[in-house]
Amino acid sequence: MTRVRDILAEKGNAIWTITSQTSVRDALAMMAEKKIGALAVVDTGSLVGMFSERDYARKVISIPNFSLDLPVEKLMTRRVFFAIPEQTMDECMAVMTQKNVRHLPVMDESILIGMISIGDVVKRTLFEMDNRIKDLEEYLWIHLI
Known about the structure:
Low-confidence stretches: none
Mean pLDDT: 94
């Protein structure tokens, strides 16, 4: 069973972070530049939230006189669900589905060590399914034909 640590080993541990005082404009620009959908919000070395495309799309309408110069703390999600390196893909998929999130920061103790997305989980799940199908086809060819 694939674990979070396996995905991080494959994709790398690059983490793009901002502070809660980063402007929405700068956060959106960073997400566009890096081609990512969410950023970890870190203040004084601690994960304090997540800022995602969804946060922007859904929360901006509730702020009167909204400006792209506002800090992301006005829009970020403060309740952060996270994964740990030993969690399985099934466990992560369950959290993402139940909590309606697309990104999970990966924490080792209190240290942010990576980020996985629903795309990472789906990609790995499809890879595993493809390998399973190939193994079953090979078994059939060897034992039944």
